[in-house]
Write a structure and sequence with these properties.
Structural class: mainly alpha
Shape: globular
Radius of gyration: 30 Å
Number of helices: 16
Number of domains: 3
Mean pLDDT: 88
Helix content: 55-70%
Order of helices and strands: HHHHHHHHHHHHHHHH
Strand content: under 5%
Largest sheet: none
Length: about 290
């Protein structure tokens, strides 16, 4: 005798439909509504958000809480590296100088970032304030001030850096010799030549590059080393990006001399260096 087919499913079709309605009603639809609200709120926020100005960040530095002050100074150091963002007015200059002077006893980061911000503007109105900033300055802040002096470009400030080429802190010596090269004051040449014999390699490298930038090839032997990646690979503490930047700086600084030994080393980099940016820079110098 044949028996009627039996439904072996544990849940009948009606129950499946009911579960789908429950899931859509209580989970999926509310989730989609929530996502829509978040996107709508985010869009309105982006459309209505006002772009903060240099003066807004200066106000943070002057009146903000502990974290807001140094964060405001940090933002200034970033946006003022763009010449289009630098206000060309006396009010800006006065407020920056005042904030820098008031930050002497604040969190070190506030003074450091403000110094960098002033240096990046290349506005000579900040030259005196930065120069006077070295008086009784904390050692922790010296690297930022020295770097800022180099970025500002006032060559008359070069003698201020000379004593720092003999500082006990190797990082300070290294930044000082690089800053002297950026300023290009001929009074710094004897200081830089002496620094070629510093026991710290970073100081030697910075001195050789700075001298070459100023038209002096006294550091040729060191430049030749910097144009040899296998030499830099002996310094595991120097990361890949630093090595690449050192090679690029050596190429740029030394190519002007037409020295056959240097030219040969640059030609080798153009043909086989692992970094395409370095190969392109080397090729460009060979073709010039």
């Amino acid at each position: 005798m044949s028996s009627e087919p039996q439904n072996t499913s544990e849940n009948p079709p009606e129950e499946y439909s009911f579960l789908r309605v429950i899931v859509h009603s209580f989970f999926i639809i509310p989730f989609l509504i929530a996502v829509f609200c978040v996107l709508l709120f985010g869009g309105i926020h982006l459309l209505t958000q006002e772009k903060r100005s240099v003066y807004d960040y200066l106000e943070d530095v002057k009146t903000g809480g502990h974290n807001k002050r140094w964060q405001g100074a940090f933002e200034l150091s970033k946006i003022l590296s763009n010449p289009a963002m630098v206000p060309q007015e006396e009010r800006f200059e006065n407020e920056m100088i005042n904030a820098f002077e008031q930050a002497r006893h604040d969190d070190n980061r506030v003074r450091q970032y403000l110094a960098l911000a002033m240096g990046r503007t290349q506005n000579m109105a900040f030259s005196q304030a930065l120069a006077e900033g070295f008086i009784n300055e904390k050692e922790e802040n010296l690297p930022a001030l020295i770097y800022a002096i180099g970025q500002l470009g006032d060559t008359t400030n070069a003698p201020l850096l000379h004593d720092y080429a003999d500082h006990s802190n190797a990082r300070i010596r290294s930044i000082a010799v690089v800053a002297m090269g950026n300023l290009g004051n001929s009074e710094s040449l004897p200081i830089l030549k002496k620094a070629l014999k510093d026991f710290e390699p970073n100081v030697q490298w910075g001195s050789a590059i700075s001298l070459a930038q100023m038209g002096d090839l006294s550091g040729k032997e060191i430049l030749m080393q910097l144009l040899d990646r296998s030499y830099l690979d002996k310094f595991p503490e120097v990361d890949r990006d630093e090595k690449n930047n050192l090679i690029l700086s050596a190429i740029s600084a030394s190519s002007r001399f037409g020295d056959p030994d240097i030219r040969q080393r640059i030609q080798s980099l153009s043909a086989s260096d692992q970094n395409m940016k370095i190969r392109a820079a080397a090729m460009k110098q060979i073709q010039n």
